[in-house]
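Annotated sample (chain length 241).
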Amino acid sequence: MGAYASPQPGAAALAHGAVFLENIDALAETEWRQLKPPTSVLGCNVAGDAVRRRVEEQLELWDVAPRWVVSTAQAAGVTNGYDHPGRLGTDRFVAQIGARHHVLARGRPRPAMVVMVGTAVTVDALDAEGRFLGGLILPGHGIMLRALEGGTAGLRVPTGEVVDFPTNTSDALTSGGTYAITGAMERMHRHLAARCGEAPVTLMTGGAAWKVAPWLPIEHEMVDSLIFDGLLALQSHRLAL
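Output written by the structure step:
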C-alpha cells in the first residue's frame, strides 16, 4: 500500500508498506488508522475476489470507494499486445506503465525490459513506442526448489550460495535457480535489442529482486516503487481526460 500527496507521477510518498494476507482484516484498526483519509483509492489486485472484498471492507474506514485496475488494450501510454488484453495480469500491466513513465522521464523514448521477481518471475518487453510486445513467466526460486524437493527423493538441503562451478547440492540448487532466472532475462534482453535496434532500459522490481540482481550481468536498475508509479500514472491520465 502506498499513500501519495497527489495523484500524479513523481508525487511525494506519505506512507508505504506491506502486510501479510492474514493481517488484512486488521488494517483499519492498525496501520491505516494513523493515516490521513485519502481523496481517492486506486488498487491493483491479482490475489482474487476474496482478498479484494477483504480490502474493500477495511477501506470503509474512510468511506472512499476504491477503483480497481483492469488490463485494457491501451492505457497511460502503453499499448497492450497480449492476444487477449484483459487476461494480462494487472500487476504486469501497471508495472509496464510505471516503466514507460520512468523511460520518458529520463529523455527520449527507448525500449524497456520490465522484470518482476516474486513468487513467480515475469520478464516483459516494451518497444520505444510503448507497445507491449510480449513476455515470459517462470517460477520463482522458491517454487523451483519446492518442485525439486517434491519430485526428487531425499533432496532437502540447506540454502546454498551462487557460484560459478557448484560442488555441493546446496550450491547447485541455489546457483541453478538463480541462473535460470537471470538466463531468461538475458535471453529476452537479446530478443528486445534485436527487435528494436538498441539495448533496452532494464527495470527490476519485486520482493525477491534483490536476490537475483547481483547475478544479472546486463545493466539494470532496481525500482521498488514501479507498480505504484504505474498506478500514479494511470490516475493522472484518468484525471487529464
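Annotation: The CA atoms of residues 145 and 151 lie 10 Å apart.
Annotation: Helices lie at 49-59, 90-106, 141-151, 169-196, 209-212, 226-240.
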